[in-house]
Design brief:
The chain is 25% helix and 42% strand. By secondary structure, it is of the alpha+beta class. The protein folds into 2 domains: 207 residues, Porin; 33 residues. The longest helix has 40 residues. The relative contact order is 0.12.
């Protein structure tokens, strides 16, 4: 009886584990990630897509570069000199991701996982004077790099894996239901575990939407960054001013023409009284 009593809980535990395994397998099977960078006409820009249940839930297009300071020995092997590695996100990178109602995540790995980028997005609701307003933002960036990788690093003193993290980040703030677009360069500072050095992340040609994608592989309406809006205004302002100036000139010429025609049709009264006898 004791053996049977002990066997029943074991069987129940096994069933629970099998159910959990089956559920996890279903979740993994329903999630897809794709690197579509080959479709981009910009060789420096990557395109990543995360899909769940056969529907696109996160899309990201951007070019990224990391400026990483690192120490090397000087020629006297006593002093340290700080060098700089410029690491660009390359095509053919491995991508992972997950989507949620209020949190989404994108992970990218390249150069045999010597480099890894993690971007965390959150969606929040705020109480405004007009009522509740939802926005999403980039809340965290983590960059893992291996300074023993020989392509970008030359004889780094503290060679090995290092992690650089953002702190209190609130970037790419966008109204919920819209995508974020910005062609201009944006920089994000990351604190590295390598002797507290600062890694600079440079983003450009950005188009991202981590939530509320309605159509498969299609971004929602764009929310442009202030820099792009200002540049667009600077480009269109001369055209607008030119059109206004042209309109003012045309109106002035029209008024002059009408005035000249009216004055030409008026009877000229002679100033010399001797000419009155010839009138009538």
């Amino acid at each position: 009886m004791d053996l049977r009593g002990r066997a029943v809980p074991s069987i129940d535990r096994l069933r629970v584990l099998l159910m959990l395994f089956h559920t996890m397998a279903q979740i993994m099977a329903e999630q897809e990630v794709e690197n579509l960078s080959g479709l981009s006409t910009n060789p420096e820009k990557d395109i990543f897509v995360v899909r769940e249940n056969g529907t696109t839930c996160l899309m990201a297009e951007f070019a990224a570069k990391f400026i990483v300071p690192y120490d090397v020995w000087a020629s006297n092997y006593v002093d340290l000199i700080t060098e700089q590695a410029d690491i660009a996100l390359t095509r053919g990178a491995e991508v992972k991701g997950r989507c949620g109602h209020s949190e989404s995540e994108l992970q990218v790995f390249w150069v045999d996982r010597a480099y890894a980028l993690k971007m965390l997005f959150v969606k929040e609701s705020h109480n405004m004077s007009k009522g509740p307003e939802a926005t999403w933002r980039l809340s965290k960036v983590q960059f893992v790099y291996d300074s023993s990788e020989k392509t970008h690093f030359k004889d780094a003193v503290s060679a090995g894996k290092h992690t650089a993290n953002s702190h209190h980040l609130s970037a790419l703030v966008t109204p919920a239901g819209k995508s974020y677009e910005c062609q201009a360069q944006q920089t994000i500072s990351l604190a590295s575990s390598d002797l507290q050095k600062t890694v600079t992340m440079i983003l450009s040609a950005v188009h991202i939407q981590p939530f509320d994608i309605i159509s498969d592989f299609v971004f929602s309406e764009e929310h442009k960054c202030p820099v792009d809006e200002r540049e667009q205004l600077e480009e269109t302002l001369p055209l607008i001013l030119g059109l206004i100036l042209g309109l003012v000139i045309m109106v002035t010429l029209a008024i002059y023409h009408v005035h000249h025609k009216m004055t030409a049709n008026q009877v000229q009264i002679p100033r010399d009284r001797s000419q009155y006898k010839h009138m009538g």
